[in-house]
Amino acid sequence: MTTLGFRYHILQNIGVSTPARAHILERAVSHWFSTLAWSNWHVPSPMHGVHTRTTVPFMSIGHLHATGIPSSSFREFNIVSVDGKPFYHELIDNEQGINIYDEAIDRLWQMVQLLEITIRASHDAVSIDRERIAIMFGNNTARPVPPLCLDRIPALQDSLRGFQDALYRSKPFELLLFESPIFTVNDEWFAIMRKGADALHTAYRAAMTALISQ
Question: Whole-model pTM?
Answer without folding.
Answer: 0.87
